[in-house]
Design brief:
Shape: globular
CATH architecture of the largest domain: 3-Layer(aba) Sandwich
Helix content: 25-40%
Strand order of the largest sheet: 4-10-9-8-7-5-6
Number of domains: 2
Number of helices: 15
CATH topology of the largest domain: Aspartate Aminotransferase, domain 2
Strand content: 15-25%
Amino acid sequence: MFPDFSDGAENQSPPGGIQMVVSTPKESEGKSGSGTQITREYNYGTWRKQKGWTPKMIVSAEGCYFTDAEGVRYLDFSSQLMCSNLGHGNRAVIDAIKRQAEELPYISPEFTTDARVRLTKKLLEVLPGNLVKFFYGTSGTEANEAAVKMTRMYFQKEGKFKIISRYVSYHGATAASIALTGDQRRYTSETPGHATGVVRAPDPYCYRCPFGLRYPECGIACVEYVDYIIRHEGNVAGVIVEPITGTNGVIVPPDGYMQRLREITKDNGVFLIADEVMSGWGRSGEWFAVNRWKVEPDILTTAKGITGAYVPLSLTATSHEIAEHFEENMFSHGHTYEAHPLTLLPAVAAIEEYQKKHLIEKAARDGKYLGQRLQELAERHRSVGDVRGAGMFWAVEIVKNRKTREAFNSREDKLEGRQTVAGRVAQEMGKNGVYINSWITHLTVAPPLIATREDIDRGIDAMDRALRISDELAES
């Protein structure tokens, strides 16, 4: 049986994350049986109750496909966790890993290396022009932790420390990042004082406007409210946003939102932090999503696609103003694996692959085709409430009632491990050889940037068939 991508109660699903699982240990035996059971018994499955977790053994991956131990091949329609932008088995990145491992696998971050110099130069080519100094980590949450610390260190003498984030957001699993996160994954981590210095703002979620308004008549009230918060809250140091919301629904803000947010942060003397962990590296049809609106943040964080997820690397990129501050002020941050050379050279290779293969332009071009195909599904299926996205980054929101926009499931369902309808649709797609990431109310469509239109059509066809499940449950 194909791995169960659903949020079914039988799998005691977690308050977050999508796991590739089979339904019972018996069904996972055979070539992958012993490995599955060892992993199940001695490893933790992320973001879930552990009972019922039976991970599928994956043995190989190439291009837009991966293969399990039984020899079944699946189309990767979500780039795993929206990170395998270059697809699987890219030789240039693999060769860079091997070369760096042979030449210099590790050296302390107090030294520099050829890989560090080369990556720094490549980043200066592709990042927004105002970002000129970099801190390297190993995950998106580390990048955001660094951004928060830098912001608070910068404004320490002014007594400004509060960070504004949004309710429909995810910024990572470590202390500051999970406090910034708006979705339910923060609930189990919250203790008295946990979210000290975090203030939440409404989201540019036009399909479910928090103010019950419609764009453009709304005057983009959600962003104007950020200005109100800053002026009335006091001691705000920064605002962190995913320019295009990731896991929580691929929410693309209306035109004018990001531009106005940049104005508001500048007018109030606070930093704008753009979390591009998921939306960066061509995913939105631009190098970075902020480029869509010609916005230059004070800090940009990213990970995932920076190496195509071949090795763990993250980046916290800062403006000249911030860089100058730390010339005479203590930069109190660092860790053993900062600027780890084994992670840096693969990033150089990855960026060169994006450039040589014109993948940013391809993502923009094929993303329009992907969007058109998804819109076709919306016309045929009464359970599809909204289709939204940019580039190779889309969400299909599934609803119980199209007129009222009533959802099938809620955050509480996710917390309790109850099955979601979106998860059932994803599971059905899996049975037809297509892996897709589901989350409470929607499916995240984010194939590798190298995907052909034939790959896109295959994924769309599988979704077309699977949506019959939600159609049958939807109200007419």
